[in-house]
Amino acid sequence: MTVFPKIILSLLAVLAAAGGHGLDRKLDKALRTEMKCVRTLVCKADSAGRLPRTTDPSGNLVLVGPHDWTSGFFPGILWELYGLTGDSTYRSQARKFTGMLYSVPEMKNTHDLGFMVFCSYGHQYAADRDEESKKAIIKAAESLYSRYDEKIGLIRSWDFGKWNYPVIIDNMMNLELLFEASEITRDFKYRQIAIDHADNTMRNHFREDFSSWHVVSYNSDGSIESKGTHQGYSDGSVWARGQAWGLYGYTLCYRYTRDPKYLSQARAIADFIISDPRIPSDHIPYWDYCAPDIPDAPRDVSAAAITASALLELCGYCPKDAGGRYREYSCSILASLCSPKYLSKPGRNAGFLLGHSTGNLPGGVEIDVPLVYADYYFLEAIGR
Ligand code: GLY
């Protein structure tokens, strides 16, 4: 069996950190499984001209168009596989599926451009430094900029619903694209709105224990209209994926700014997650920490994968003790995700690698299913 140099290096690093998890073999096996699984998805997506998102209640693959918020993750998976293996077949496939998103950067009716454009064109730019992806990132940053309100100091999330000016914790994930657009253009207006957004979210989205609300809505003068949830169990509950988005978001803010307040915020969120007694012993959270039917509540593997990836970045910014704890927790998540309970086999799960994620339980959709972004952040964590 061929083992690629980058895999060896990252797996040795993880093994050294992880002690008894035996993660090297487990992650190697997971990666090889993914290399088989992804063939099914490439084939089906290619012939449909659409992008994989999840499965329906009968277990059939659900494909979406480029304007769906998850469209960037499949090209992102192929870019991650290219980075992990150096196999140019993944690069051609990644470029092809990234190209399907050509009209996305112009979208001004969504805040999800970070997910869509940065996971696709962002990777392409990092790999190829080409004009096409550079233009896509700058165009998307302009579109996001159009959703920023100076008086409120935040980027608007949704254009639907009962709220005056809703901002969701997920929106922290768009800041990477804005920081990067400023690095590319040397125009610091994108970076400035990213910082404003991060600061105001830090001020208003977090409770005393550093758990977060999902949706905070603002009045037009910048005062708070409401704090609550849309995808969580209740307004006061702790929606698992929201905690993961916040952790990832403040970690990336520290990467780009080196401002210690973002590092403190990321660490406080990490400490909250790591010490929460409602998370089961395998570290894969229930979809909401306050779900009333725990221990029978569905899990959210996507929240676990995002957390694992974020912690592997965060640990590099922390003193040895704290960094070690974050790395250890991340490795425990990854070890669990490699177990047969969560990791699929080729030919199952419609081609996805991980099962047991929850997209939107209150909406009655995507409950205990594979989700393309769970696979994406799991592969990103392996790469890290
Ligand atoms: N941003 C959508 C979600 O996390 O479900």
List the topology elements.
Layout: H1 5-18, H2 23-48, E1 51-55, E2 61-64, H3 73-85, H4 88-99, H5 113-128, H6 131-145, E3 148-149, E4 154-155, E5 166-168, H7 175-185, H8 189-204, E6 215-218, E7 224-228, H9 240-257, H10 260-275, H11 301-314, H12 320-337, E8 357-360, E9 365-369, H13 372-383
Antiparallel strand pairs: 1-2, 3-4, 5-6, 6-7, 8-9
Bound molecules: glycine (GLY).
Q: Order of helices and strands, N to C?
A: HHEEHHHHEEEHHEEHHHHEEH
Strand content of the residues, in percent?
A: 5-15%
Report mean pLDDT, rounded to a whole number.
95
Note the main sheet. 3 strands, antiparallel
| Biggest sheet: strand arrangement | 5-6-7
Radius of gyration: 19 Å
Termini distance? 22 Å
The poorly predicted ranges are: 1-5, 7-16
- Overall SS class: mainly alpha
Principal-axis shape: globular
Can you summarize this structure?
This protein has helices at residues 5-18, 23-48, 73-85, 88-99, 113-128, 131-145, 175-185, 189-204, 240-257, 260-275, 301-314, 320-337, 372-383, and strands at residues 51-55, 61-64, 148-149, 154-155, 166-168, 215-218, 224-228, 357-360, 365-369.
Task: Describe the overall structure.
The longest helix is centred in the first third of the chain and has 26 residues, at 23-48. This protein has 384 residues and is mainly alpha-helical. The chain has 13 helices and 9 strands. It is globular. Mean pLDDT is 95; it is low at 1-5 and 7-16. The protein has helices at residues 5-18, 23-48, 73-85, 88-99, 113-128, 131-145, 175-185, 189-204, 240-257, 260-275, 301-314, 320-337, 372-383; strands at residues 51-55, 61-64, 148-149, 154-155, 166-168, 215-218, 224-228, 357-360, 365-369. A hairpin with a 4-residue loop joins strand 3 (148-149) and strand 4. The protein has a 3-stranded antiparallel β-sheet with strand order 5-6-7, with no helix packed on it. A two-stranded antiparallel ribbon has the order 1-2. A two-stranded antiparallel sheet has the order 3-4. Helix content is 52%, strand content 9%. Glycine binds at residues 170, 231, 241, 359. Residues 170, 231, 241, 359 line the site of glycine.
